[in-house]
Amino acid sequence: MHPPMRVFAAVAGIVLCGCSQKDAGKSDTTKAAEATATPASMASFDPATHTAVIHAKDFAFDAPDSITAGWTTFHFVNDGPNIHHVQLIRLDSGKTRADFDAAMKTKGPPPAWMVSTGGPNAPSPGMSTDAMINLTPGNYVMICFVDIPEHVPHFTKGMVHDLKVTAATGADSPEPAADATVTLSDYSFAVQGALTAGKHTIKVVNNGPQTHELELMRFLPGKSMKDLGEFSKTLAGPPPVDGLGGIAGEAKGMTQYFTVDLSPGNYVLICFVPDAKDGKAHIEHGMTKEFTIK
């Protein structure tokens, strides 16, 4: 199957090579998973704050098995050494994990019962991000579509985790309050509100018609989109960016939030989702937006 939210593009979608400058040279191997394995689960879900904690390593999620419905903060920690994200997929029409596994082995677009419902997008190794997602009751899977540096999607190495969302019994968790909004469409990012140095809660709205994502990256000092393009050709040396997170693929009409602490520097928003018509990543259709924080 052509993954619906794969963090890969022929031009520059592989720029987050699974390492920041300090992590350059680390390899993508199963031995790394053993070396970074934690002695006990760090996953948790706090119903009082409606916060789910997820840790990613090479190549597994340490995540809760069940949470309650409503607005949930997903605190995602990338224990690396490679880059990872959490793509949440809801299994509609009574479908199960077995149906999902079978579908992932077939070619062509994903079936309609696999609904991309966002999730915390990719922070660099050693970093974390918070994303706020409104989930309805049902069966979900968490999956990592990142396929770098070996062009082998991480879900094929075990990065799939079942998640059961049950009906909430208490008061509804409140929708977050944002100070900026980014609207996604084919193929652009429209920003409303001032992005300045400091902490922000950013609302991400997908106006479609296709599924889109938002990956926020900060250029290292002196680096630019030109360096990003050059790096993507060879993947040699450290990447010119750090991944800060964002929102993984969300279907048309969905709204989600993420938080970020912006420091002075140059940034870019990118969507790597493969296009429904030609299969090219949306970055190749011009879906990027650069901005500067002073």
What is the residue-averaged pLDDT? 87
Sketch the topology as an H/E string, one letter per element. HEEEEEEHEEEEEEEEHEEEE
Largest sheet: number of strands, sense, barrel closure: 9 strands, mixed
Provide the helix percentage.
under 10%
Q: Report the span from N to C terminus.
A: 43 Å
Number of strands: 18
Task: Give the oligomeric state of the chains in this entry, treating copies of one chain as homo and distinct chains as hetero.
Answer: single chain
3D architecture notes:
This protein is mainly beta and 294 residues long. The chain has three helices and 18 strands.
Draw up the topology in text.
Blueprint: H1 30-36, E1 44-46, E2 51-57, E3 60-62, E4 66-68, E5 70-78, E6 87-91, H2 97-103, E7 114-116, E8 128-135, E9 138-143, E10 160-166, E11 180-185, E12 188-192, E13 198-206, E14 212-219, H3 225-234, E15 241-250, E16 255-262, E17 265-270, E18 288-293
Question: What are the salient characteristics of this protein?
Answer:
5-stranded mixed β-sheet, mainly beta, 294 residues, 38% strand, 9-stranded mixed β-sheet, disordered N terminus, 18 strands
